[in-house]
Predict the structure.
Amino acid sequence: MGDDPTWVELLLNFALIAGVPAVVGGTLILSLVGLTMWATASLRRRRRSPPAP
């Protein structure tokens, strides 16, 4: 039988297991926000009133 993992090994494994979804989820959220800002940039430019002479 194998040795039981130490608390340090358990902590590292937990950090890796919890970190992967956080990184993937954060990347998806930032990508969606960036794409939304990029897609609506032309609409924001068009809505501005022209500068006064």
About this structure: The chain is about 75% helix and 0% strand. The mean pLDDT is 87. The radius of gyration is 23 Å.
